[in-house]
Structure formats: C-alpha cells, structure tokens
Amino acid sequence: MTTIVPGPTYAEMRDPATLPAKYRQAAQAARHDEKNPANLFNITWRRDDGSVSYVILPPALTGVAANVIVLVGAIFPTGSHKVGPAYATLAEAEAIDGIHPGTKIIVGPSTGNFGIGTAYVSLLKGYRAVVVMPDTMSRERYERIRQYGADLDLTPGSESDVILTLDRTYQNYVRNSDYLVLAQFELLPNYRFHYHVTGNAALAAAAEHGNGRVAAFVSAPGSAGTLAAGDAIKKCFSDATIVALEPRECSTLYNGGQGQHRIEGIGDKMVTLIHNVLTTDYVALIHDNDCVRGLQVLHTAGDELANRFGLADLNWRDSGSAIYSLRTCLGISGICNIIGAIKTAKLLELGPNDNIVTIATDRFDRYPSVLDNWARQEGPITTAILESWAERIFHQAGTSEILDVRGTAQKARLHQMKRGLWSRFGYTDRYLTAMESITFWDEEAGRAKEIDQQIQALREST
After folding, report:
1. According to the model, what pLDDT value does residue 314 have?
2. Which CATH number does 83-183 carry?
C-alpha cells in the first residue's frame, strides 16, 4: 500500500502544542516551503507561539462599542481556513475507509477557497485532484488551483449557481468508484472541523477581552461549516446569539430568494445539509456592493483615512517573520462578516464589555482582479468617495433586514427547504428527519474523539 502522508487530529488542530515534538518542529520549519507536506500540521488557527490568529477592529472603524473580534484565516496554509475542512474530510476517509494515494482521484465541489484547499491537501498527500466550480469566479482562484496541480471542471454561472456544480458532481463523480468527493456542503467532517477547531479559537480569543464571553458569533454561510463554531460556543454560553449572513441579492434563508450576487464564497441558493439550523438565531442581509466597496476602502485607504478609522495600527507580526495587516488579510466575504457583526452589535445593543466574533476567511490575494473590474465600472475613486463609503457601509450599518428565525415556524421552514433539495440528491427521509434533533448534531460533534484515535493509529502505522 502507498504510504499515507501523516497529518493532525482534530485535537491537534485545536491545540498544536499537543503535537508530538517531531511533527511540531517539522511544521514550524515548513512555513516558508508551501509545498512541504509538514504544512498539514499548520492547519490551525494558532500561531507558533500558541496564540490565536485574530484582530479586534477599532471602534473608529466599526462605530460600535462592542469588541468586534475577527479570526484571521490568512495564517492557514493556502491563506484560507477552508483548507481545514478539506483536510479533515480526506483524513477521515483515509482513517475510516482505508483510501490511500493511487486508489482515488479527489474531487472538490467549490466556489473557490474549498477548491483551493482540496487541490492543496491532495498535492501534499499525493492524490490527483479535480475541482468543480462555476466559471465566473475570480481569476486568482483558478490560478491557485492550477498552481497546486489540480484540474478544473467548470460549470456555467457564478457564486449563486453552485447547485449546477452539485449537479455536475453527482452526475460525473459521486457514483464513479474512481473518485472520492470531498462534499463540503454535505459531509460532516466540515462540521466537526469548525465545531472543534474554529469554535475553540473563537472562545479562546474572546476569553482575553471584555467579560470573557462570546455574546454573538456571526458568519455568512457558503457550505455553512463555519457556523458549526456557533454550536460549540453555545455549549459554553447558551445565551450566545448566532447570526447567518446572506447577500441581499440572494436571500435564500431569509425569504427563499434566488438572485445573483458578487460575494464569492457565500450565498449559494440553498440550506446546506450540514447547516444546523436549530442553533441559528437570526439571518441578516448584506448588500454585495457594500462588501466590494468596503474591501476597496480598507485595501486602498491612504494615510489620512487609515488614521481616521484606526487602520494604521492594525499591523502585527506573526510568531514567525510574516507581517500581517488588515489590508492583506481580508477578502469580500470578510467584509460581509464585519458588516454583519456591526449590525448584530447594534441589534443586541452590545457594549464595551461584550465580545462579538466573526471570521476573515481568506487573504486579499484572491481579489485584485475583482477590484480592477470594480474600478473600471466605478471610474475614478477619490479619497472623498472612500470616506463616504466607509461612513455609510460601516458606521451607518443598521438593523434593517434582520430576520428572527428562533421560532418553531421558521425552523420548520428552513428544515423543509433543506429536505426539498437534499432528498433530490438521495438523502433519505429518515436521515433528514434526524437532523431536526439536536441529538444528531451532538453525536456528530462527539465522534471527533474516536476519529482522532483512528487518525493517530493510522499515522503510527505508516
């Protein structure tokens, strides 16, 4: 049998200090060698010194008193935390199902970051890979996937047409024994990664500020895996509020809307199978143009504007040699999450002792072509224009278009939407009904300990 390239358990991704010394040292040495397989052990929210990768946004930018804590996914291999679910799904398949390089071609249905993660993890572990994604995503995403040696299978449409990507995946790959599909929208390793790894990072970051609690967790669902961090948070703080964000132009969870939008990575016209809607409290709408304009503001603001909004001080050194800044560590979905966090802070009337946590999924390096296209569309963008955008998008973010989905009727509506889509892809009524109980989700999260033992046993045997 071909040797399995070793990687971390869920517990080790949660806290790399628990890694055996040889793996931890190899991972630290590999940070400047992207294609070194030891980087699998760098799939974590924690820096080499054990601290969580996050930044607190200045009130001068947010306009709210609450601590807006943004987990920064830029430190992950590939520059996005989506590499975590891709790794977890493949690692579980190796440990539980016995696959190994040469037995399967890996397939990743995606709109970008998960596809990049699939290509990267497959490269490091020695598998061929295919990424199935829409054909109008940012140029940089396709380039990164090809850079990692994967093939692209492009489907018609944009971010909002990911169901066409699912159709292609089921038609060409799911029932073909030559392939293993890392199905991020439906397989539970995605849920487990964010429950145990992202949820722990959110709790650890909040523990250092304000009252040490998480008042709210805010994230825009693509696969909805990230929202599983909210489940872990609610286990610690039952009164925490979980808010899912959607593009106003594609308000599927909000009211069944099915439009086109430009926030890459979110708003995919569905209730994903792994979205535990039982723990989602609100759905808030964010205008896609606001996210692109907000990215333009933070990325191109001159010194005067940067000083006014507190951006000049948002530079920090990793425990290695890399210097990060908010300008390089945010993409369009990160701006969406920040706007949503501001709206949530206002909705809940959070004060300076309260913590609200959100996510910056990826780095800016996926979006230069998006801003180039935007600049051609908008014309000259002056400092005055940037200032007016910042005032309106961040300071004036209001509490309109936020839907309370805590009631029984709303939960039933979301479950029915999930049932209507996923029964089409072969999921049984029994399985879909089980998802309507919190017991299902608790049991799936609880499987991580047993799976860790299997991953570790496989690692020790190779």
Report:
1. 63
2. 3.40.50.1100
